[in-house]
Amino acid sequence: MNRALRIHAYGGPDAVKVDNIAMPAAASGEVVVHVKAAGINGLDWKIRDGWLQNDFPLPLPATLGVELAGEVIEVGAGVSGFVIGDRVMGPVGGIGAYADFIAVASNMLVKTPASLTDERAAAIPVGALTAWQALFEAGELKRGQTVLIHGAAGGVGSFAVQFARRAGARVIATAQGINAGYLRGLGADEVIDYRTSSFWERTRDIDLVLDLVGGSALANSWQVITDAGRIVSTAAPDIAAHTPAGKHGIWFQMRPDAAQLAEIVSLVDQGAVKVEVSEVARLSDAAAAIERNKTGHGPGKAVILFQ
Ligand SMILES: NC(=O)c1ccc[n+]([C@@H]2O[C@H](COP(=O)([O-])OP(=O)(O)OC[C@H]3O[C@@H](n4cnc5c(N)ncnc54)[C@H](OP(=O)(O)O)[C@@H]3O)[C@@H](O)[C@H]2O)c1
């Protein structure tokens, strides 16, 4: 049996169904993974609701889910570095991770260290790769600079705070006040409660804004960056259209990168980077858990358990 969380039509939480689908087979360069846990992302409900249907039309029904942790059960031709029984984790380079079994390009994946449960492993790939690439590639963050991270307590932000601090940046985070202690524990120098304070009245001379929220958080950020500063957004694909003259605004999209992921996972394995799982949802509650990502949740990242 291969249970999959699929949509047959765009819509709200009711559009997500648990279906039995055919077992995949490993094509050349692929492995089949028995999925044990999969991370929940905003992309799940953005796809489900049909937000992206014009830019990325999907053949329906479509299986949701963009990252996983599990075990290799079949190895395709030309795959090196993985054998049956290996525990693996990674983004899937598209969608389809919310199923018991999926065929994935092996070059997206890394081995899961023994120190990591599948739940924690599934909470890492997309959030951590997004944070790393947005800060250091798109954002060009350097030691001694100041970064303002909006949405810092979530799946991407929790890694971004830690990576920026490790790189020697001063880290200012916006989040609900209830998450201030959590974020200080991850290395934030200052936490601003977005519900009770106006960050633009309390910050200036910011070298980099990492915008994980969009909307008014982004709109109010142009005034706090330096002349050479930049805003990198993972939440506002139309940032270019709203970038004031003379300012530098960048839309950023994560790309799978197994070498980078292996480096990050090694830091987690050593205890140098923490992973926070906010919720472990069962398959029966998965549709509601995807919806909860839209409306707010505890610190860190929610995952779906496929066991
Ligand atoms: N472009 C890409 O490649 C890419 C990759 C990954 C993610 N994303 C997108 O990036 C965004 C963040 O992803 P994520 O996985 O980190 O999401 P997440 O886990 O849902 O975290 C978002 C955080 O933002 C907080 N928040 C909401 N409104 C806020 C505001 N006005 N000011 C400050 N914080 C606020 C939320 O806290 P509360 O619960 O307290 O409201 C939540 O902790 C999502 O839109 C996601 O779809 C894009």
Which keywords apply here?
single chain, 307 residues, Quinone Oxidoreductase, Chain A, domain 1, Rossmann fold, 2 domains, 10 helices, 16 strands, binds NADP nicotinamide-adenine-dinucleotide phosphate
Structural notes for this entry:
A hairpin with an 8-residue loop joins strand 1 (3-7) and strand 2. With 307 residues, the protein is α/β, with parallel strands linked by helices. The protein is 26% helix and 28% strand. It has helices spanning 42-49, 118-122, 125-138, 157-166, 180-186, 199-202, 215-219, 239-242, 258-269, 286-295; strands spanning 3-7, 16-20, 30-39, 62-63, 67-75, 87-91, 101-105, 110-111, 146-150, 170-175, 190-193, 206-211, 225-233, 249-251, 277-281, 301-305. The strands form 3 sheets. Strands 3, 5, 6, 7, 8, 15 and 16 form a 7-stranded mixed sheet that branches. A 6-stranded parallel sheet has the order 11-10-9-12-13-14. The longest helix has 14 residues, at 125-138. The protein has 2 domains: 3-124 and 275-305, Quinone Oxidoreductase, Chain A, domain 1 (Alpha-Beta Complex), CATH 3.90.180; 127-251, 3-Layer(aba) Sandwich (Rossmann fold). The model has no long low-confidence stretch (mean pLDDT 97). The structure holds NADP nicotinamide-adenine-dinucleotide phosphate.
